Amino acid sequence: MSVETPPILQVQELKKSFAVHRGFLQRKGGSIQAVDGVDLEIQPHQTLGLVGESGCGKSTVARLILRLLPPDSGRIIFEGSEITDLDEQAFKPLRKRIQMIFQDPYSSLNPRMTVAQSIGEGVRMAGIRSKADQRRRIEQLLDMVGMPKASADRYPHEFSGGQRQRVGIARALSVSPRLILCDEPISALDVSIQAQIINLLKDLQQELGLSYLFISHDLNVVSYICDHVCVMYRGQIMEAAPAGALFDSPCHPYTLKLLAAIPGSKTSEKSKSLATDRSSIAATACRFGEQCPDATAACQGQILGLREVAPGHFVRCCLKNEALK
Ligand SMILES: Nc1ncnc2c1ncn2[C@@H]1O[C@H](COP(=O)(O)OP(=O)(O)O)[C@@H](O)[C@H]1O
Ligand SMILES: [Mg+2]
Fold this sequence. Notes:
single chain, alpha/beta, Rossmann fold, four-stranded antiparallel beta sheet, 12 helices, about 25% strand, binds adenosine-5'-diphosphate, binds magnesium ion
């Protein structure tokens, strides 16, 4: 990507913690740092994968970008302008430019609204006034996602999971967004349908010049659709790289663990069991320390920033820091 093209989205040092309530009186019992200093960058017309196991903070990142949640700190810059502290009124026009696709379109589509009504909301928001033009646009959107025109007058429960996800995508497209946050968009679908939806997203990206944040717990899926990948673990980015570099020369022990989980992967043969004496490792500053098969006592007390190990390839690992010294 040339230097002149600014990223469509930049996220800098984003943090969000949640209060944890315990006991039957629901007393406040500390907090969980769901997102802990996350940096991301998405280039125009590209897809950034955000991957990591369930609960690591991926959806929270998306909700912070979309301002469904206020961040504790950090900056969100969209198309060159900071949007972190915009009030609702100032953010309103931008809401059309950033859309989200959810894992389960059934829960995001109103079951009492026809497809035309669901998509029609966005079409009206996009400024299309006359009923005839609205209908034409709804049918055009359905056509773009591979659904027949007749589906406009049907209800969500009449469709399969894959068809509902197509409707969810049409609804997101109805306001002509530039960036779509795809939060596990295929995780709830049959494997046979997953590839169709991924291919649809790829085709739409080409056709409309869209940018995606593609959230998944599955590195295999990410390898297929993403230009860049960020691997997240317990609120932090552990490794970030162009997709080719991440899959050809993964560095972080957590990335290796995710790769080893892919059936038939080369890495699975190399996956190691945990070292027996874990006592010194428990105290390491590394979030992954207790799980890490490579951790040694040398990891203790190390400051864990992201380090560039090759051009554009960043890793948060003391062992890599050692290797670079
Ligand atoms: N609204 C909330 N209140 C309290 N805790 C939350 C809330 N949303 C998310 N969390 C917690 O934050 C962590 C990250 O959650 P989430 O972003 O949903 O992870 P992921 O999408 O990677 O599965 C989890 O431990 C989750 O329980
Ligand atoms: Mg999630």
